[in-house]
C-alpha cells in the first residue's frame, strides 16, 4: 500500500513539511509505503482549457504534473499540503491540482484523500475546504482527524511547537491508514460500487 504526500510549499522543509513528515512517521509504523513529493518550488502554469488531455491522455504541458500522474494512479492514498495564501491554497498548488485531476482519466474512486494546511494564524478552514473539493468530485473518500487538518507556524520549523497540530496529523494518518486497509479488504470482497454512465447537464437550452 502506498500514500503519496504532496508538499505545495515553496519551502522544502517549512511548516507544511513538518505536518506531512509527522504523518509519514505514522504511515511507516502502519507498514504503508510513503513518498513526499515537493512541488511548491516548481514552475507550474495553470490549465488553459485546451482539452488536449482528452486526446493525448496527459496534459499538454509536460512537467511535474505528468510526472506525478503515474504515481497518483498507483497510490492508495493521496495527501496534499499547502501553506495558506490569502485564505486559500497558493497558486502553484491550485494549478498543479487543477491539471492533475483534470488530465488524468483513470478511476480515482476509493483512493483515500486528505488535505493539510499550514498558516501563521487564519485562513486554514477555507483552504482546507478548497483542497477537499478535488477529492469529493472524484469519488475519493476523505480522511478526517480530531479537528480540521491544520497546523500553525510562521517561520520554518515553528509548527514543531504546535503540539495539538502535530497530534491532529498523527490522528489523521492513523485514520487514513485504517481507511486504506479497510477499503482494500472491501474491494477484495465486494469490488467497487456500481457506476452509472455519466449524464451531464449544462443548463443551456
What characteristics describe this protein?
single chain, Rossmann fold, 17% strand, 6 strands, 205 residues, alpha/beta, six-stranded mixed sheet
Write the layout of secondary structure elements.
Blueprint: E1 2-7, H1 15-29, E2 33-38, H2 52-56, H3 64-74, E3 77-85, E4 88-89, H4 91-103, E5 112-119, H5 124-136, E6 150-152, H6 163-190
Parallel strand pairs: 1-2, 1-3, 3-5, 5-6
Antiparallel strand pairs: 3-4
Helix pairs in contact: 1-6, 3-4
Can you describe this structure?
The chain has 205 residues and is of the alpha/beta class. 41% of the residues lie in helices and 17% in strands. Strands 1, 2, 3, 4, 5 and 6 form a six-stranded mixed sheet that branches. Strand 1, helix 1 and strand 2 form a beta-alpha-beta unit. Helix 1 crosses helix 6 and helix 3 crosses helix 4. The model has no long low-confidence stretch (mean pLDDT 97).
